[in-house]
Amino acid sequence: MCGIVGYIGKKEAVPILIDGIKRLEYRGYDSAGIAVLADNDLILQKKAGRISELEKEISNLKIHSTIGIAHTRWATHGEPSDSNAHPHLDCSGEIAVVHNGIIENNNTLREFLKRKGHKFRTPTDTEVIAHLVEEYYKGDLLQATRFALAEVEGTYGIAVIHKRKREIVIARMGSPLVVGQGKDEYFVASDVAALIHYTREVVYLEDGELASITDEGYMVTNLNEDEIIPKIEEVTWTLDEIEKGGYPHYMLKEIFEQPTTLENAIRGRLNFTEGIARLDGLDMNLEALQDAERIILTACGTAWHAGLVGEYMIEKTAGIACEVEYASEFRYRSPILDERSVVFAITQSGETADTLAAVKEAKRKGALTLGICNVVGSSIARKTDGGIYIHAGPEIGVASTKAFTSQVIVLSMVALLLGRIRHLSYEEGREIVEAISELPSRVGKVLKQNKKIMNIARKFYKSNNFLFLGRSYNYPVALEGALKLKEISYIHAEGYPAAEMKHGPIALIDEKMPVVFIATKSMVYDKIISNIQEVKCRKGIVLAVISEGDEEIKNLVDYAVEVPLTIDMLSPILTTIPLQLLAYHIAVMRGLDVDKPRNLAKSVTVE
Ligand code: G6P
Q1: 373 among known catalytic residues
Q2: What percentage of the chain has pLDDT greater than the value 70?
Q3: Alpha helices of 284-342 — where are they, by DSSP H?
Q4: What is the pLDDT of residues 576-588, one digit of tens each?
Q5: Which of 226, 269, 320, 541 has its CA at 20 to 30 Å from residue 119's CA atom?
Q6: What is the pLDDT of residue 607?
Q7: CA distances (Å), origin 464, targets 503, 586, 599
């Protein structure tokens, strides 16, 4: 989720590169860097913080260059810092690389290269690529990059330059790259937003393709050295449309990103042979995890709901006592903690003041603290003893969507790991691993029902109240569905465990009250059907999220959205999505600012 820009031509490269990465800053903004060729030298400048910091530094240098690459970073390996910013260099300092994506076999390659005598300057996965290209470089940069990439597992969009060549080599696997064609000049970008001010004629690279770009033109090939005829396309989108990926709002874009963000969260973390999850940031604390007597999950807002799902997962799968605490209440409650307690702080931003305070309190009491964060190098990621990044990329819409599903999938892997180092059998572990791996494509299937959900929203967008009900793993989804609707549509909505309805909320039900049930096939299926009947016979209107092909419930309710089957513990990842879309469409129909709802902030840094 970072940004790449490159330029080769006759104009001053530095202003073009800086302008380009600034246009990509919305995709990642924790550090930035630039590498250009000037006076037979490779000049490198990198800076933590916003791009304006880098710009200030560079303007003092008065560089004249007509070829270079630049990057704005959203950290995945190594916290944001001057040295971890891209570009990264090889040992000789002659090869510079910028990279988007994640190299899964980073550790193996790093060890291999170290044995060959390469000296690393940073813990980043990108630096590995620079050394690999150096290892294979014999005067042909394209070939060296091709050989290097043959060793790489994972995703990449890269741009590479060499001190002694007027050439930019780029390559793509799972992370977009585009070449822009100007008059006697060429541009490279990970996103057309960076180059449409210069040209609208572009060539999109496909996965497995590389290109060599020189002053004379560009040549596209693939990893097998076949030449590819490039297809030149014209970009017709406006800048605003591009930044939102063609969606009208960031929130909708982020909802639709979920198959990819979930894929990123599980990438390299599932071991099919052993039926276990590999969580590098936790493995170092494996002994403490084995000894753990209590797990506490602490968080705020949507992340707290992810924690509630995690509680069900951990108790059932790992058989360890688990509690979920509002971070804001945690330290005022004198929690009983000791060295056999493990406290997970779940947070998208990693900056929420209440969650940070809870981490400090847990540490003070001797517990092991671990983070489940999105923003790499954030305060909570740094303050905890270890943790797992969810790799969801920047979440811009204030209402959290993709971060929630990624937090839940990461928690499922935590539950799996905790289970497998305790009583969970190999077969049970395998079943969970398989189910996790199938989720991204199943989420894609749910998203296909967007139109249907929009039509349902049209019937209800004028309602003043909503009730959301679910049981077991889907009780937290009821809370999250109600929160999403509240946050962006300002409709009063409440979430309850379905069985609790009869202890109070049932009094609210009449023919004007929409009740959303999460009623997928699960161990509590029959009970949920009874709850639906209780609402129907009081004339309530029922919308239900149900399992694919469930005719029984379909005949009972007024509106139904189907989701694919999965194991019980993972169903929240599928059932949340229709509720995100329902809230989104209702808010749009009410004419509200979906991405910036009133009174709310993306990151709450006050207690
Ligand atoms: C704010 C946001 C919520 C978010 C919560 C926790 O209230 O509006 O969307 O869930 O903070 O944020 P965190 O960054 O810690 O996940």
Answers
A1: no
A2: 99
A3: 286-291, 301-313, 327-330
A4: 999 999 999 999 9
A5: 269
A6: 63
A7: 22, 11, 19
Contact criterion met (CB below 8 Å) for 540 and 585: no
- By alpha-carbon position, which residue is closest to atom 4 of ligand 1? 301
Q: Ligand 1: which residue has its CA nearest to atom 2?
A: 602
Token pair listed for 15: 């202003």
Q: Tell me if 326 sits within 8 A of 300, measured CB to CB.
A: yes
User: How would residue 344 be classed by pLDDT, with cut points 50, 70 and 90?
Assistant: very high
Residue 179's beta-bridge partner residues?
Answer: 188, 203
322 is catalytic: no
Comparing 76-80, 157-161, 182-186, 548-552, the range with the smallest average pLDDT is 76-80
Q: For 26-73, how does the pLDDT look when each residue is reduced to its tens digit (9 = 90+)?
A: 766 788 999 999 988 999 999 998 888 899 989 888 899 999 999 998
Q: What angle do CA 72, 75, 78 make, to 5 degrees?
A: 125
Q: What is the pTM of this model?
A: 0.81
Expressed in angstroms and rounded, the spacing between residue 373 Cα and the centre of ligand 1 is: 11
- 604 CA from centroid of ligand 1 (Å): 7
Pairing of strands 233-234, 201-204: antiparallel
The pair of structure tokens assigned to 158 is: 């890269």
What is the rounded CA–CA span in Å between residue 564 and residue 571?
Answer: 9
Contact 391, 403 (CB under 8 A): no
Amino acid making up residue 195: L
Q: At what angle do helices 402-420 and 426-447 cross, to 10 degrees?
A: 170
* Ligand 1 cavity residues, CB under 6 Å: 300-303, 347-349, 352, 355, 398-400, 600, 602-604
